[in-house]
Specification:
The protein is an alpha+beta fold. The chain is about 50% helix and about 10% strand.
Length: about 525
């Protein structure tokens, strides 16, 4: 009797589809993108794919053995997880990266929740998010033939020209499975064989495109919109990740709601977030809302839900939470008032320390009314047209013990940083030589963009006299005025160079030229 199966109440739907067949269709659908990735990136991409799949299958096999469960590797779901994860990885990552990602995806997201059909989020995406958080540097370094460079979306965000054809074919930099053409072929195949339905891909892509057109800052610029669709993983997410039958809504209405929310969320992250490639986070968040979406979208067969008797009562836990929140808010407000003055003092001390770092010959720092007036005349607007979103904040004159001018400190900012505004003090000698830069606001990604604050990068500006610094994104700078960018942090490097160039330009035109 213990081996009898429990059968749910009628009605039932018969289907010839099996898990292994569904997974087999997904594998076949991923082959075009896989083949194009291997063709473009070479043997290193193939090694990453094979290691990722092997780690996923082995993890599931060992878990089944250890827990004495029926072996499930024959359903091919572990292969799909390993393959999807590998296609989301940059080329050339150390091979322990796909191993750790696959182990996390299978063990913690799938097996520990009861196996296939019980996981509440997409295993491959959970593995990728784990790697993005734990190994940010490796996951943000994109290489082709050993040369590191930025992804198409990073180049687009920096205002550089990007080839739509190369991005569509996946023949420029990006993750292994970045071929939009290959992904579209696979997605169409899944639609034809019934592996997925149209609701999720269509609603994701339409809502994503609409939001980018309305709030992306370029209007209905077709080439720009196509580049946004071709890059950043939105196509892979729409056809292969969001349509995961375990973690997406069941009903057609729910799938449309799910797709619209997902597309808008992905677009919000794309436009306002710190990373252009943040579709993974959007899907993971939407996975968590699937039970709620199912609750409001699945029709009740042959009946209706019985209304609960009695009036609605506010749970005691909710009241307690509101009280705690109110007390915490008052406490935080009090702490802020008590520490406001101290924080201002520390910020001023940090600014003075940065002045001394970039203008070490100065005994004191003063403001010059004429220079301050020139800065005020900028009205806090973007400086010039050749420096991105660069701003000139203030100019301080450094004087030696005898009262003579020892140099100038120009506070400059760039709004093009990966994590927001970057502010720095740029030291200038009287002859126009840069005497150093020191950051007063730097919130770039730890281990990546934050490396612009290290001497290895900022030291390249010291002692150089030039009209304009030039950034070499892939290295190779040798002459004075040429700056090697931080590998994997092109946007942060470019933002710093633009801000320094703005300071140099202001010095030449408004300080040297104005004297």
């Amino acid at each position: 009797m213990s081996k009898l199966m429990n059968v749910s109440s009628s009605p039932h739907v018969r289907s010839r589809l099996t898990t292994s067949r569904v997974m087999g269709d997904v594998i076949l659908a991923l082959l075009p993108a896989t083949a194009m990735g291997v063709y473009h990136f070479g043997s290193s991409a193939l090694a990453t794919i094979l290691v990722s799949i092997a780690a996923a299958v082995l993890t599931e096999f060992l878990f089944d053995k250890a827990t004495r469960r029926e072996n499930t590797i024959t359903d091919c779901s572990a292969i799909v997880t390993g393959l999807l994860l590998a296609l989301c990885l940059p080329n050339g990552v150390p091979l322990y990266i796909p191993v750790l990602g696959s182990v996390f995806a299978i063990l913690f997201t799938k097996c520990c929740f009861g196996g296939l059909g019980h996981n509440f989020m997409n295993p491959a995406l959970s593995g990728r998010c784990f790697l993005l958080i734990s190994f940010a540097s490796a996951m943000s370094t994109y290489t082709v033939d050993g040369v590191s460079s930025a992804t198409p979306l990073a180049e687009l965000a920096a205002g550089n020209a990007v080839s739509l054809v190369q991005t569509f074919l996946g023949s420029n930099n990006g993750v292994i499975g970045c071929s939009t053409a290959g992904l579209l072929l696979g997605g169409i195949y899944l639609l034809i064989v019934g592996g997925i339905t149209w609701e999720i891909p269509a609603s994701v892509l339409v809502s994503f495109t609409a939001f980018i057109a309305l709030f992306g800052g370029h209007g209905f610029d077709v080439p720009y919109l196509l580049l946004q669709l071709a890059g950043g993983g939105i196509v892979m997410g729409a056809f292969f990740m969001a349509t995961d039958p375990v973690t997406c809504p069941l009903a057609s209405k729910g799938q449309l709601i799910y797709g619209v929310v997902l597309g808008i969320l992905a677009a919000v992250f794309r436009v306002y977030g710190s990373s252009a490639d943040s579709v993974s986070y959007a899907i993971i968040i939407c996975n968590m809302f699937v039970p709620l979406i199912d609750e409001i979208s699945i029709p009740v067969p042959f009946g209706y839900r019985k209304k609960k008797e009695g009036g609605k009562k506010i749970p005691a836990a909710a009241i307690a939470l509101c009280v705690i929140t109110l007390i915490a808010g008052v406490a935080l407000s009090g702490v802020y008032k008590m520490t406001e003055g101290k924080i201002a003092e520390q910020q001023l001390a940090a600014k003075v320390a940065s002045y001394r770092e970039v203008c070490p010959d100065a005994a004191e720092f003063t403001y010059d009314d004429a220079l301050t007036a020139k800065v005020d005349a900028l009205n806090g607007e973007v400086y010039g047209t050749d420096f991105g979103k660069a701003y000139i904040n203030e100019v301080i004159v450094g004087k030696d013990a005898s009262g003579k001018v020892a140099g100038y400190v120009i506070s400059a900012s760039s709004g093009d940083g990966m994590e927001g505004e970057i502010t720095m003090s740029v030291g200038m000698a009287a002859d126009g030589t840069v005497t150093g830069i020191s950051f007063t606001v730097l919130n770039e990604t730890a281990g990546l963009g934050s490396l612009v604050g290290e001497d290895a990068f900022k030291g390249q500006f010291n002692g150089v006299k030039t009209d304009k610094f030039t950034l070499f994104k892939s290295g190779g700078a040798s002459a004075p005025g040429e700056i090697n960018g931080v590998s994997g942090a092109t946007i942060s490097s470019s933002a710093v160079v633009n801000a320094v160039n703005a300071a140099v330009d202001f010095f030449e035109n408004d300080i040297q030229g104005g004297n």
